[in-house]
Specification:
about 180 residues; alpha+beta; 2 domains; four-stranded mixed β-sheet; three-stranded antiparallel β-sheet; 3 helices; 12 strands; about 20% helix; NUDIX domain-containing protein; NUDIX_hydrolase_CS
């Protein structure tokens, strides 16, 4: 039951995403117009210290008007290595430079609407380099015990699905 995209044409573009209109053929031969959003890859990173605490950001998302815990994240610049982008974003948003990064998972947070892929990395050590350059992106940065993660997710304190998946995976890896 494969849907086939026969063509797509641009509707709108800016440096972060493109809106396209696709002509899609359904398995029964009917056609439909489907809008889609093409996006650059997103790189995400955090660190888990020896006490099994994870570095998180408490931030507001104006689009949904919600507060929640997140990991440092941002778009990958043209030609930039994804892991390097993750390390850059973590240092810019938290003031912590991660040690060697390990790929945790890659998720497609809304694959019915966008081709966005979020590449999530973690490290088991980091060096504090000073106040966050992009401190405006979050109200605060805190070390939070991984053992609290499942309850935080269940209470809705980690509203972004990509962040919840990453934190639950780190909880599993580190605590079993």
């Amino acid at each position: 039951m494969r849907w086939n995209m026969l063509s797509e044409k641009p509707v709108y573009a800016n440096p972060w995403f493109r809106v396209q209109l696709a002509d899609v053929e359904l398995p029964d031969g009917r056609h439909l117009d489907h809008y889609l959003i093409r996006m650059r890859p997103v790189a995400v990173a955090t660190v888990v210290n020896e006490a099994n605490e994870v570095l998180l950001l408490w931030r507001h998302r104006f689009i949904t008007d919600t507060w929640g815990w997140e990991l440092a994240a941002g778009v990958v610049e043209d030609g930039e290595d994804i892991a390097a982008a993750a390390a850059r974003e973590m240092e810019e948003e938290t003031g912590w430079r991660p040690g060697p990064l390990h790929h945790l998972l890659t998720v497609e947070p809304s694959n019915g609407l966008t081709d966005a892929r979020h590449h999530i990395y973690w490290s088991d050590r980091a060096e504090y380099t000073g106040p966050a350059q992009d401190g405006f992106e979050s109200e605060r940065r805190e070390w939070v015990s991984l053992k609290l993660v499942p309850d935080m997710v269940a209470r809705g304190e980690v509203p972004a699905a990509n962040m919840a998946a990453a934190l639950l995976m780190l909880h599993h890896i580190r605590l079993g």
